[in-house]
Amino acid sequence: MTRPPLPLHTTTRLLSHLQATRTYAATLWNTQLRELVRKGLFQQGLSLYRQMFRSGISPNAFTFPFVLKSCANLSLPVPGAQLHCHVVKTGCESEPFVQTALTSMYCKCCRTNDARTLFDENPESRRLTVCYNALIAGYVQNSLFSDGFAMFRAMRLAGMEVNAITMLGLIPGFVGPMYLGFGISVHCYNVKYGLDTDLAVGNCLLTMYVRCGSVELARKLFDDIPEKGLITWNAMISGYAQNGLATHVLDLYREMELSAISPDPTTFVGILSSCANIGAQNVGREVEQKIECGGFGFNPFLKNALINMYARCGNLVRARAIFDDMPEKNLVSWTVIIGGYGTHGQGDIAVELFDEMIGSGIQPDGAVFVSVLSACSHAGLTDKGLDYITAMEWNYGLQPGPEHYSCVVDLLGRAGRLKEAMELIESMTMKPDGAVWGALLGACKIHRNVELAELAFERVIELEPTNIGYYVLLSNIYSEAENLEGVLRIRVMMRERKLKKDPGYSYVEYRGRTHLFVAGSRSHAQTEEIYAMLNRLEDLVKKLDMPDKNDQERKMKDSLAGWECTVKSWRLHLHS
DNA sequence: ATAGGGTTAG
Question: Whereabouts are the PPR repeats (predicted)?
Answer without folding.
Answer: 25-59, 128-162, 229-263, 299-329, 330-364
